[in-house]
Write a structure and sequence with these properties.
With about 350 residues, the protein is an alpha/beta fold. The chain has one domain (about 5-95, about 175-335): Rossmann fold (3-Layer(aba) Sandwich), CATH 3.40.50.300. The chain has helices at about 50-55, 85-90, 100-105, 110-120, 125-140, 145-150, 160-170, 190-205, 215-225, 240-245, 250-260, 300, 325-335; strands at about 5-15, 20-35, 35-40, 65-75, 75, 95, 175-180, 210-215, 225-230, 235-240, 310, 315. Strand 9 (about 225-230) and strand 10 form a beta hairpin. Helix 4 packs across helix 5, helix 5 crosses helix 7 and helix 7 packs parallel to helix 8. It is globular.
Amino acid sequence: MADVVLEIKQLHTHFMTDGGEIPAVDGVSFKVHKGEVVGIVGESGSGKSVTSLSVMQLIPSPPGKIVSGDINFKGENLAQVSEKRMREIRGNEIAMIFQEPMTSLDPLFKIGDQIMESILLHQNISKKEARLKSINLLKLVGIPRAESVVDEYPHQLSGGMRQRVMIAMAMSCNPELLIADEPTTALDVTIQAQILDLMKNLNKEKETAILMITHDLGVVAEVCDRVVVMYCGQVVEEGTTREILKDPKHPYTKGLIRSLPKLHEKEQRLYSIPGTVPKPSMDMVGCRFADRCEFAFKRCFAETPELLSHENGRQSRCFLYDENEGNELKDAETNIRS
């Protein structure tokens, strides 16, 4: 995984509203390597989808704007390229599976026409060849009677079938990076498992790098190699999936994992992190999770923590692991846990 396909550096995406400027993405940095599946997790309002839309240059302007930062795709900074160049990249080198399969397909066009549109735009082949490729793509994603489905409309397909069509569209030009924004939302458990298996197979066979955006840690455990945990527009923790699930560093990540149902425990109520994600603002001071954190102390409300590096390239944004605090912090954490 030496080849870096996508590298985001200090990305800031803001929205201008009547109530002021909102930093929806505030200094986000991470990398995606060739053939790697990276998960971005966090509650609604954490900035996950805005990050992905920033990569695709699909932030509605106004009110949104990429204020600063780099989005390097194979060495090319997408934050500075023209719209013409982005049209060449979208759907061809970078593809995206959007959050709602029910509404992402145009109800007025046949399935085959919608898949063929991207193929004809980016590849120098005839309409007949494009139709044949569309049928083969539908077969690849496990859709039965593909020869008939290619001439049907979206309303004639189930939610799971429509999601498979979205994946077929995304893979039509063999992209090097696939962004999947909540690809299993609104699907039942059986179909969800099939979609995840499909994405894993595509990742292995094509070596396609995948950026998986989800709030479901079960999905992360199933398909992701590495995890980026976001909260209120910032990255609060990063590491391999095994490290994050087995030994979370940040209190927010601990809360997310603690809220998962456990088969061997018969709790009356599932644990939930108290409070809600705060609305980002330009004048926020301190750790953004402090008001909801059981480990918070005075410094958390007065200073904004930076991402601290741990062993094996792990990172967390928490003062509990700041060596400059000495033993006092370690004692405080031990007392709280006990």
